[in-house]
Structures are given as structure tokens and as C-alpha cells.
Amino acid sequence: MKTRTVISVAALALATAACASGSGGRFPTYSEDLNRLTEECRARGGLFTPIPGANTGRPQTDYACRITGGASRLD
Known about the structure:
- The structure is a single chain.
- By secondary structure, this protein is an alpha+beta fold.
- It is built from three helices and two strands, in the order ααβαβ.
- Strands 1-2 form a two-stranded antiparallel sheet.
- The longest helix is centred in the N-terminal third of the chain and has 19 residues, at 2-20.
- The radius of gyration is 23 Å and the shape is elongated.
């Protein structure tokens, strides 16, 4: 009986550890996506700003890159 209890506890511990590891970095988190998109927008001279009323859980659709630099005129 003790052996069965020890094995059950060990199996439970392994299952819990497997769940705690998550996806193993396979998919970026919301904040990682947000930081990456913000940096990409800044590199283009823009400002990554929230869209009013947007709350989808995806920074690609919740924010927009607004280019803040002045327009250049080609002569």
C-alpha cells in the first residue's frame, strides 16, 4: 500500500511539473508581442498607440503604429 501511495505522489508531482513548464517558449506572450511590435514601430519612426475600444487580446489588433514624423516632399 505504501508503494502505491509513493508512486501516486510521484506521478502527481511529475504531472504538476509538466503543466508548470507551459508551452516551453513555443508561442510569445502578449507582452513579448507588444514589446516586439513597439520596437518595430519605433524603428519606422512611429508611436505604437492603443486603438480605442479594441480589446481582443492580440496586440496586433489592439494597437496601431502611428507614424509621427513629418511628411517629406519629393522635388
